[in-house]
Amino acid sequence: MGETSISVVARFRPARPGASVDGDVRFGDDGLSVETAASSHTFDGVLPPHASQEETYAQVSPIVEAVLQGYNGTVLAYGQTGSGKTHSVTGTARDPGILQRAVRHIFEWIRSDAGAATHRLTCSYLEIYKENVRDLLEPSDASLSVRESGKRGVFVDGLSQAQVLRCLETGGSSRRVGATQMNAQSSRSHALLTLTLERKGADGSVRVSRLNVADLAGSEKVSRTGAAGEPSRGEGRGAAGRELAPLVRNHSELAGEKAHVPYRNSKLTRILQESLGGNSKTLLLVACSPEESDASETHSTLLFASRAKTIQTVAVVNTIL
C-alpha cells in the first residue's frame, strides 16, 4: 500500500480529410512528450495520430492487471467532442476498443487461474445526464439515487447487473446522443461501465475488485458545438459541461492539496470519489485533436491532464478473509 500518482496518457486522433493540421504540435521521440505553440507537456504516454487501438490498450493494460491482482482500477476518457474518446473506449467490431480488450484480458486470466479459484464477473452500465443517473441496462426515465454505506462505499441504489457481453451490447445502444457541428453522433452524457470481479480462493478468502471505465461528455465550450440553436440540445450540452466542471475543479483542488474536496457537488465526482483520490489505481486518457481549428481546446485538455498528474491515490488489495 502507498500513494501513487494518477497515470496520464494523451492520444491524438488523425486529422479529418481536408482539415488544416496544427503545425505547432510536435511529438517527442520518447513517446512521453508533446509540444504545442502554447506549452509543452510530459505524460506517462503520448500516442500520435498513427497510434493503433492495440497501442492504446497497451497503455491501459497495467490498470487491468492491477484489477486482476485485487486492486480497484479506473480509466477516465476526457476531451472535446469528436476527439476520439468513444472510439478509444468502444472501438468497432473489427478494431475493438478498451472495453472489449479489457474483457478479453480478464477472461483469458480467469481461464489461466481456473484451477486454483472460482470467479464471478458482473457488469453495470450507467449514464449521467443533467445530474440524473440512468441505468443503461434497464433503460427508463427514472433517476437513480447515489448512496453511501460502510460496506459498499459510494454506490448507485437500484443499478442492475448483467453478464458482461450483454452489458456491452445493451448499454452502448441506450446512451443519449445528439448531432452537433463537431460530431454527428456526439454523446451528450457521461457513461460509466463497471466490471466487478470476485475471486474465491481455495482457502475461502474472497477478493473483490472493480474496473471502472468512464467515457465522459465533451469538455469543450457549448458555443463550439453548435448545439445551442435547438433548446433541448443546447441545454443538454450545457448540462454536460456543468457536470464536468466539478471534475476539473476537483482535480485542481486535489493537486493543490486542499483539505476538502467537494465530491458531493456533482453526481459524477460523487460516484468516482474513490477513483479521484481514494482506493483505486487510475489512468486518465485525454483525447486530443491535431487540427488547427481545435488548438485552443487541445491546449485546455493538455493543461487539465498536467494538473491531473499531481493527484495521489492510495490503492489496496480488497481481500475478505
From TrEMBL:
- Residue positions annotated to bind ATP are G79, Q80, T81, G82, S83, G84, K85, T86
Q: Which SUPFAM superfamilies match?
A: P-loop containing nucleoside triphosphate hydrolases
Q: Which terms does the record give in the GO molecular function aspect?
A: ATP binding; microtubule binding; microtubule motor activity
Keyword entries, A-Z: ATP-binding, Coiled coil, Motor protein, Nucleotide-binding
Every copy of the Kinesin motor domain together lies at 5-311
Residue span of region Disordered: 219-240
One Pfam family name is Kinesin
Q: Which GO terms describe its biological process?
A: microtubule-based movement
Please state the span of the N-terminal signal peptide per the UniProt entry: none
Q: Could you confirm whether the keyword RNA-binding appears in this record?
A: no
The reply to whether ATP-binding figures as a keyword in the UniProt entry is: yes
Question: Of which family is this protein a member?
Answer: Belongs to the TRAFAC class myosin-kinesin ATPase superfamily. Kinesin family.
Q: What is this protein called?
A: Kinesin motor domain-containing protein
What is the protein's species of origin? Answer: Emiliania huxleyi
